[in-house]
Amino acid sequence: MAARTLPLLHPQRILLMALLVLVLLFLAFPVYFMLVTSLKSSGEAYRLPATLWPHNPTLQAYPFVIKAWSYWRTLGNTVLVAGLAAFGATMLGGIAAYGFSRMAFTGKSLLYATVVGSMAIPAMVTLGPIFLAYKDLRLLDTHLGLILVFMAEGIPVAFLTLFSYFKAIPKELDEAAAIDGGSLLDIFFRIIVPIALPGVAVTFLLLFIAGWNEFLFAFTLTITPSTRLLTVRLFEIPIRADANTIPYDLIAAGGMLILLPLVPILLRVQKQLVEGILAGAVKE
Amino acid sequence: MSSQIVDRARSRSAAERLGDALTGVNAVAYCLVLPAILLRLAFTLVPALQTFWLSFTDKSLMAPGRFIGLANYAAMLSDKTLIGSFGFTLFYTVTSVALETALGLAIAMLLMRQLRARWISNFIMLLPWVMAPLLAATVWKIMFYEDGGILNQILRDLGVISSPIRWLSSANTARGSVVLVTVWKNVSWVALIFMAALAALPKDVYEAAEVDGANAWQRFRAITVPMLRPTIFLVLMFRGMGEVQTFEQIGGLTRGGPGTATQNLAYYAYQRFFQELRYGYGSAINVLLLLLTALIGGFFAWRMYKASSR
Question: Where are the transmembrane segments (chain A) (predicted)?
Fold first, then answer.
């Protein structure tokens, strides 16, 4: 486009750069403010007007939240539930996507429409009956219960993302392997998954992030602190015994403790993550 | 799979294909695709049907529930808070989706021109995307603090306002604030989708238009928007279905307040079901939410199909 060839100090170019900076500022500022608030002393966090950077940066809010939330345990719960659910959904969704990309069978388009159509059912609509059923099945307040819900939530994403990756793999590859006498699942795990590994990995990561961030089910289907996940902790503001003001520094530190573990993913596999987001959304 | 088997399955009659349904090619295929689909349906279609059934009963924590026909739906018609939350749901969905789409497209076009340090802008864009909706609401709530909070402080220092904005304590501003947080959270995803679509547009059409003397705005109206139509409908579909069922932003920012100003369908249904333990009535509201979501999804899926098959 024309702007690329404009000289560095062309008014139009400056205007566009200014707009770009403004947009990035809008997107980044809340995260920046959460970071600096988490580094404030408790006195400074309450002080009004609010300060734009910490005058005496301190990490004192973090140990407090880590203790109040039983952070490491909660983190373990979250990794376990989000990780196993993402793994299960990637496997099941991937195997289904493989079937759809390779075989013709009765009711294929109906089943495809069923998976896609099920995305129009809001979580809130399913939550009540799932809660009641879990109460009867004794799955309430268990990690297994959450894993099953998260898996079901993730299946359409896994299916659509991997379907678009698998379609791009030439069929001749697995036909050759079939002639050599491999079974279908054998071909899937030995040939398709290794070729589509970047897609499989990114699908897992997308679902892991989704599970990490899920709140509605995690909040409603767990009761005791020892089964709870990180986002649910965010709903329980840690309170200092001697203060009756809102502990902004603690809330912000809690937020950072939820966000920070995901930052390395954003930095290391950013390009693949974006590709995965697109693969799942772009229509067949 | 050898392709002859596939071809043979295609060329058979309907009755024979029915016979195939439980044998041969089909049996193998079903073994692959059904586990995922059945799990999915067990957690979506089955509970959704149960919600339908519950909505015709007066089941609650105390009452085992008996069939009461359309009484819950009749009660909805005279529930002023419900009608208010239906209205807010529509306002919130339309406003936030419209803003996300327009801003997302603008940001995408802006970022397409930037060639250096892409990873920084991508990193910043992915930050709101990667944050839990409840975390986004929590962060903004700290900034929304009204007397001396950071947003009012910055706006006052810049001379934009003289008295603090009542971000969450006045009804109309609270409605806008909830939209603002949602747009902040979701605009990056929209921008990423549009960036991919823009990158796929044929360059020669633009060059031809430029040679013909079309200015940037004319090129945008005559080329970019028409060619992006399928993507625009895709964005409207996903974001529309997402925003109409918003729960976390409401819970994290306002809990439906002040009063019931930011009460939406999902939050209202949740309160009826899980706080008042009125399973029947809560389910009737959920049926409304389900119909609304399916309507949005179906409509834009249909428009997207039409736009891309042209």
Answer: 14-35, 79-98, 110-132, 144-166, 187-209, 247-267
Distance CA B162, CA B184 (A): 25
pLDDT band at A128 (very low <50, low <70, confident <90, very high): very high
Inter-axis angle of helices B133-143 and A248-259, to 10 degrees?
150
Whether A12 is covered by a domain: the verdict is no
Specify if A84 maps to a domain.
yes
Confidence of residue A48 (pLDDT cuts 50, 70, 90): confident
C-beta of residue A96 within 8 angstroms of C-beta of residue B270? no
Q: What is the pLDDT of residue A6?
A: 62
- Residue-number span of the structural domain to which A202 is assigned: 70-281
List the structure tokens of A10: 């062309």
For residue B100, the surrounding DSSP H or E stretch is helix B80-113
How many distinct structural domains can be found in chain A? 1
Strand partners, B57: B67
B18 and A106 in contact (C-beta within 8 Å)?
yes
**Domain boundaries in chain B?**
2-55, 74-309
Joined together, the tokens standing for residue A254 give 């809690």
Check CB contact under 8 Å for B121 and A126.
no
Residue that has been written with the tokens 């902004």 in this structure: A248
Among the partner residues A48, A120, A274, nearest to B293 by beta-carbon distance:
A120
Distance of CA B224 to the CA centre of its chain: 24
Number of other CB atoms surrounding residue B124 within 10 Å:
20
B280 Cα distance to chain centroid: 26
Q: Is residue A121 very low, low, confident or very high in pLDDT (cuts 50, 70, 90)?
A: very high
CATH for the B74-309 domain, from 3.40.50.280, 3.40.50.620, 1.10.3720.10, 3.40.50.720: 1.10.3720.10
Is A194 part of a structural domain of the chain? yes
Are the C-beta atoms of A266 and B126 separated by less than 8 Å? Answer: yes
ipTM of the complex: 0.92
A54 CB-contact burial (10 Å; exposed 0-12 / middle 13-18 / buried 19+)? middle
Helices (H) and strands (E) in chain B, counts: 16, 0
Do residues B134 and B248 lie in contact, with contact meaning Cβ atoms separated by under 8 Å? yes
* CA distance linking residue B120 with residue A284, whole number of Å: 31
B142–A120: do the CB atoms touch at under 8 Å?
no
Q: Which pTM does this prediction carry?
A: 0.91
For chain B, the maximum distance between any two Cα atoms, rounded to a whole number of angstroms, is 78
Instruction: Give the residue from chain B lying closest to A98, CA to CA.
Output: B32
A184 with B35: Cβ contact below 8 A: no
Report if residue A35 sits inside a domain: no
More confident residue, B211 or B129: B129
CATH number at residue A142: 1.10.3720.10
